[in-house]
């Protein structure tokens, strides 16, 4: 029968072709955030086919299913949560592959088809082996990772972290910069919070030759941008990563016409929820105060995004060492901080969480495009690894005593 690890590897190999077929089906039939109806139906059918009873309609298109292992001798029933996201992006696929997207302008360009099919494979493996581990595996298929307010936040509101409450959550994401066959980990701060800033500086426009008669919002908005950057450099703890970028600055005048108002849009990202609040408060105060001092008005609006993603250090060390056992030490890599956002962060703010990367790059075959590009694709041999490894990590995590 072999060890648990060997059995998982054998099953992952046995199911690999089906997992690839599922991935191709999902890839060819992508659905946008909050519209994952057919995807959810497909996932539900697959789960039912292996004897599970998924709870459907969580956060509308999400699903939750439990795999019950042996009952524990003690009253403590440990639960581990495994998460996959299911949504695609509004991108038109440029790949010429048999499983190319059949939906105009919609594409799985962030690998969520990979995460979903991989977790279905994991479900099949763990369901098969359920007599051989104690505790419960909670499968979480969530909608809308790519769109605010993030499917994860709605799944949490719908109670996904309760009844039963997972002691830990695991999530994996494809990594086009990590060679296939390798897995990346990082403890602690990993990905950034993502807030959107919308500023309107309202002055008084008119002829550019008579600035004394006007309140120039272009000059005032320029001062505000410089002052806000200085908040990042002067008020933030230097060890605390943070980015403020403005990508839109619209002063719709002409050479000799000063407009009435200027619109600015930007993104504020960091890895500390306290600094996030403090930074936003300071920026608002500075922008409004400066505009006022210069005779204008600044409307400062924040559209809140995801919190920052923290990988629980102890859990991540455990998962890294279990992954090392499964993959071999030469196949484990360290991840850098990344100032992009990811809604798995919502789970990580509530429960011990570990978000790791599944290598999908294959330079020889030209599979090198980044996520969110029309030529993104993966080396599909990553699927057998992804499904098997997550099964192994779940089993290992269930062995930990509460
Ligand atoms: Zn994405
Ligand atoms: Zn993604």
TrEMBL record:
Q: Which GO terms describe its molecular function?
A: metal ion binding; N-acetyldiaminopimelate deacetylase activity
Annotated positions binding Mn(2+) 1: 173
Q: Name one Pfam family in it.
A: M20_dimer
Task: List the cofactors.
Answer: Mn(2+)
Domain Peptidase M20 dimerisation positions: 198-288
Q: Which domain of life is it from?
A: Bacteria
The UniProt annotation places Mn(2+) 2 binding at 110, 112, 146, 372
Note accompanying the cofactor annotation: The Mn(2+) ion enhances activity.
**Which terms are listed as keywords in the entry?**
Hydrolase, Manganese, Metal-binding
Annotated GO biological process:
diaminopimelate biosynthetic process
What is the protein name stated in its UniProt record? Answer: Amidohydrolase
């Amino acid at each position: 029968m072999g060890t648990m690890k060997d059995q998982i590897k054998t099953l992952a190999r046995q199911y690999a072709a089906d997992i690839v077929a599922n991935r191709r089906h999902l890839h060819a039939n992508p659905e946008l955030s909050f519209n994952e109806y057919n995807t959810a139906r497909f996932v539900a059918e697959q789960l039912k086919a292996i004897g599970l009873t998924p709870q459907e309609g969580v956060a509308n298109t999400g699903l939750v299913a439990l795999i019950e292992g042996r009952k524990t001798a003690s009253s403590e029933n440990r639960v581990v949560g495994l998460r996959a996201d299911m949504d695609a992006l509004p991108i038109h696929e440029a790949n010429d592959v048999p499983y190319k997207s059949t939906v105009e302008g919609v594409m799985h360009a962030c690998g969520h088809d990979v995460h979903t099919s991989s977790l279905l494979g994991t479900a099949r493996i763990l369901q098969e082996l359920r007599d051989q581990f104690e505790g419960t595996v909670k499968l979480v298929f969530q909608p809308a990772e790519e769109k605010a307010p993030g499917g994860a936040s709605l799944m949490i509101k719908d109670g996904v972290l309760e009844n039963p409450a997972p002691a830990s959550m695991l999530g994996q994401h494809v990594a086009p910069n990590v060679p296939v066959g390798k897995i990346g980990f990082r403890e602690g701060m990993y990905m950034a919070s993502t807030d959107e800033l919308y500023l309107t500086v309202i002055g008084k426009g008119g002829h550019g030759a008579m600035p004394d008669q006007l309140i120039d919002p272009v000059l005032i908005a320029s001062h505000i941008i410089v002052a806000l950057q200085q908040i990042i450099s002067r008020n933030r703890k230097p060890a605390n990563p943070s980015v403020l970028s403005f990508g839109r600055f619209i002063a719709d005048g002409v050479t000799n016409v000063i407009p009435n108002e200027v619109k600015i849009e930007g993104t504020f990202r960091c890895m500390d929820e306290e600094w996030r609040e403090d930074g936003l408060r300071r920026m608002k105060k500075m922008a409004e105060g400066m505009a006022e001092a210069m005779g204008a008005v600044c409307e400062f609006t924040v559209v809140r995004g995801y919190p920052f993603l923290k990988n629980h250090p102890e859990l991540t060390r455990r998962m890294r060492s279990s992954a090392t056992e499964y993959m071999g030490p030469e196949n484990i890599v360290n991840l850098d901080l990344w100032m992009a956002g990811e809604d798995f962060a919502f789970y990580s703010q509530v429960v011990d969480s570990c978000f790791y990367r599944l290598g999908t790059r294959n330079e020889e075959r030209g599979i090198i495009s980044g996520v969110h590009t029309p030529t993104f694709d993966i080396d599909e041999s990553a699927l057998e690894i992804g499904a098997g490894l997550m099964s192994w990590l779940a089993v290992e995590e269930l062995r930990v005593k509460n």
